[in-house]
Amino acid sequence: MLYMENNAVIPHPRNLERVVESISKGGTGKLHILSDFDKTLTTAFIEGQEVHSIIAQIREGKYLTPDYSPKAYALFEKYHPIEIDPKIPLKEKKEAMHEWWDFHFKLLAECGLDKKVMEEIVRKRRLRFRDGALEFIDLLHQHNIPLVIMSAAPGDMLKMYLEQENRLYNNVHMVANLFNFDRRGRVTGVKEPIIHSINKDETTLQNFPVFEVIKNRNNVILLGDSIGDVGMIEGFDYSNLLKIGFLNEDVENNLRTYKKRFDVIILNDSGMGYVNNLMKRII
Fold first, then answer.
1. Are 9 and 15 in contact (CB under 8 A)?
2. What does residue 156 show for φ and ψ, rounded to 5 degrees?
3. Number of H helices, E strands in the chain
4. In this structure, which long-range contacts are made by residues 117-121, counting pairs with CB atoms below 8 Å and at least 24 apart in sequence?
């Protein structure tokens, strides 16, 4: 039985109610949130225009040395076809994506990326938090529920975006690509493990300091905008898992697949109203 409410599709309402009830009974002390960032906590579109990823914002602007943009586009033209080709085996794709990200991060360092450039990009506010997302983050903070953000984006910039909104709370934890800096704030490299578009299933939380915070919080609410985001939970021994997917575009062609992977699907780049109401019920 399919159920819809406020741009939310619930493929199996009875199963959803069972999971929500179990999570609620466990209390907030047993709960943590595992979330993607781009196009999940933020919108996919602003005034009808697709929002550039954080990396694309660096690439499109004239922030770095003149050779950066053509070299970045050359990497894109080489590796993006591999990323989207369904015929290429997953292992081969993952190796290529790691190679791409590694080359690109080295290129960013060589071409002059530093903290000042990052701060300038963040200040321009070329991404927008989804309606209700800041309220969602506040709610988690008020009840001391850990929010673990797992993203292939530069984690240092994600922190800046949250800090700009006064939402870099102590219950927010970042599992993302973090840079190494020299004394002047210039990027010198990236810390391993590199997180890219298709290896979140291998990015096990046990390998990060946040695991000590969440290891006994076995009830999990997962948020993501792509099928691959479901892999964020791989390797974590959960008791109850509620998966919420944001299907931002091309609903007709993708809804069937999303219904197989998520317990709730939020359609058409909508706000976090349904998610916030659900959280208040659980709390």
1. no
2. -60, -35
3. 10, 12
4. 117/58, 117/63, 117/64, 118/154, 118/156, 118/157, 118/160, 119/160, 120/63, 121/54, 121/57, 121/58, 121/61, 121/63, 121/157
Beta strands across the sheet bearing 147-154: 3-5, 8-10, 264-267, 240-247, 219-224, 31-35, 147-154, 172-177
Side-chain-side CA neighbours of residue 168 (13 Å): 11
Given the structure tokens 């905008």, which residue do they identify? Answer: 225
Q: Which distant-in-sequence residues (6+ apart) come within 8 Å of 266 by Cβ?
A: 7, 8, 244, 245, 246, 247, 272, 274, 275
pTM, 2 dp: 0.91
- Give the mean pLDDT per block of 10 residues along the chain (283 residues): 70 96 97 96 90 82 91 92 87 92 94 95 90 98 97 93 96 95 95 86 81 95 93 92 94 91 95 95 94
Half-sphere exposure at residue 154, Cβ-oriented, CA atoms within 13 angstroms? 29
The number of beta carbons lying within 10 Å of the beta carbon of residue 277 is: 14
Q: State yes or no: is 36 an active-site residue.
A: yes
Catalytic residue among 36, 114, 156, 269: 36
Is 237 one of the catalytic residues?
A: no
